[in-house]
Specification:
This protein is mainly α and 284 residues long. It contains eleven helices and no strands. It is found in: Cell inner membrane.
């Protein structure tokens, strides 16, 4: 909701100031200018990115606007799941969690955490490393190095949609100028026969193209790209917390202390406290 409120503030401030200065909203409504700018920007976006990035970027819209999953409750779920799996493996041996990691959808432990199961990639990430740990043939520092390589490539993948949106934001003022130039070309074509009022209207229409391109870039697409980047960093940080917990467990630390390593690596904004994590784990 904060994102929606921010966009409304942008619209209200710009249009409110325009109206207060004596402008008329109708003077800003030029569908063909919007077609030129929006169509050209979207076409360039498709050319510059792979189909997968295009789909991810478009799919990120509703998630950014209406659903921010990274919260204290979500982090408690991640750490709680790790604690239960590590605790079971410590009490009953690593082979005892084989069924859990091979069939997480059927696992009594994983089924307690639907928010994690819903994220197929994160579920596979946790299960893959638990599977590696169950072999018992990899030293903790080797496991950590493998984590680092995968998280690095994963972070790049998570940031691709935000980078794509940023490039669109950078291009929008230029497409606004394109629309403005085309408007001036039309104006020049009627210059000899048109009246002053008609010429003024055509020039104003051309200037609206520049206005729309700049407003879209700095008021909407640019901030949206920044929000996507922040979301990607939070997701990468969650994987970092999983890494810290599992590496600590591989080094022989008890489950309660291992998940504390993970908790400490989380970003402070929604990081649960030590007592909150302890109460959550005991409650489950």
């Amino acid at each position: 909701m904060l994102k929606i409120a921010g966009f409304l503030v942008v619209i209200g401030s710009v249009l409110g100031g325009f109206l207060a200065s004596g402008g008329h909203i109708g003077a800003l409504w030029h569908p063909f200018e919007i077609l030129i700018i929006g169509g050209a920007a979207f076409g360039a976006f498709m050319v510059a990115n792979s189909g997968a990035v295009v789909k991810k970027t478009l799919a990120a819209g509703p998630a950014i606007m209406f659903g921010h999953k990274f919260s204290k409750a979500y982090y408690l779920d991640v750490l709680g799941l790790l604690y239960e799996v590590l605790n079971k493996s410590r009490r009953e041996g690593m082979m005892s969690i084989e069924v859990d990691i091979e069939e997480p959808l059927e696992s009594p432990i994983f089924s307690k955490y639907p928010a994690i199961l819903k994220d197929k990639h994160m579920t596979e990430f946790i299960c893959d490393y638990l599977r590696i740990m169950s072999t018992g043939n990899m030293a903790p520092h080797e496991l950590e190095a493998l984590f680092d390589v995968e998280i690095s490539s994963l972070t790049e993948e998570l940031l691709e949609p935000s980078h794509a949106a940023t490039r669109v934001s950078d291009a929008l003022p230029g497409f606004g100028i394109v629309a403005a130039v085309l408007g001036i070309v039309i104006t020049m074509g009627i210059l000899g026969d048109a009246e002053k009022s008609e010429i003024g209207e055509k020039v104003a229409t051309a200037l609206v193209g520049t206005f729309l391109g700049i407003l879209a870039a700095y008021g909407f697409v640019g901030p949206f790209a920044s929000a996507m980047e922040h979301e990607a960093h939070e997701e990468a940080n969650t994987y970092e917390a999983i890494k810290m917990s599992l590496v600590a467990s591989a080094q022989g630390l008890p489950p309660a202390l291992a998940v504390e390593f993970g908790r400490k690596s989380l970003l402070p904004e929604h990081r649960p406290s030590f007592l909150e994590l302890e109460e959550s784990v005991k409650g489950r």
